[in-house]
């Protein structure tokens, strides 16, 4: 896969779909690699004629990692509670700048920007700080960063904070499956597909990247709520969220849509995943907003 040296880091990326299609930048979530974009999600977008750009965020996958840098979310929370400035390796603005620099590298002036979970927070930051680059903003199962909305259930928070730094491949896969079951769409947990995904994630980088995810979590904690900045935005937007999401509860999506003044699609029974059974409900509004906001 190609590597772009941008913004002081190396970003592993890939492009699919027709070269002349509307560019759609997909930004992944916390601690996940770009191989997490499953075929049942990306193929309909390619079939719709979109040019998809996927990449590993900084500090995950085959992009530059920050091994040894500060990355304990508990330490960051303690500093914030004490009114101190926490020491973090990077923040959401840095991650958003990576995405924009990747567009520069690819010669793309403007793109539709879609982010899932942490990726939604990064996508929002791209739109806030680089508005001229964004044709439309699509925030999926994400939140504004405000502390009164989108908070995980206690069970989901426990799973999220359970660092999976084992050096045993099978133990890693087993723990990932346990965690994923906590926030999966009820009745639609696909253990076979997820087992394959987690195995491929391990094999692609040669082990776990638990500390990397911790540093990415610190980046979110160190970034201020975006409510006011989103309210000030004038950007075509779409917010998608599931009513059964336990990791970022649907109040986060509702608040995001309220701030943006855009369309909100609440999908009954969808958890913090892109369930195959609900793919049409997820993909069709995305296709509609990209198509409606692509210059002729």
- Helix and strand succession? EEEHEHHEHEHHHHHEHEH
- Name the helicity range: 40-55%
Q: Mean of the pLDDT scores?
A: 95
What is the CATH T-level topology?
Answer: Rossmann fold
Provide the structure class.
alpha/beta
Major sheet: 8 strands, mixed
Oligomeric state: single chain
CATH architecture: 3-Layer(aba) Sandwich
Task: Report the principal-axis shape.
Answer: globular
Indicate the radius of gyration in whole angstroms: 18 Å
CATH superfamily: Alpha/Beta hydrolase fold, catalytic domain
Question: What's the β-strand tally?
Answer: 8
List keywords for this structure.
8 strands; eight-stranded mixed sheet; alpha/beta; Rossmann fold; globular; 296 residues
Which secondary structure elements does this structure contain, and how are they paired or packed?
Elements: E1 3-6, E2 9-16, E3 23-27, H1 39-47, E4 51-55, H2 73-81, H3 92-106, E5 111-116, H4 118-129, E6 134-140, H5 154-160, H6 169-183, H7 191-205, H8 210-221, H9 227-231, E7 237-242, H10 251-260, E8 263-267, H11 279-292
Parallel strand pairs: 3-4, 3-5, 5-6, 6-7, 7-8
Antiparallel strand pairs: 1-2, 2-4
Helix pairs in contact: 1-11, 3-4, 5-6, 6-7
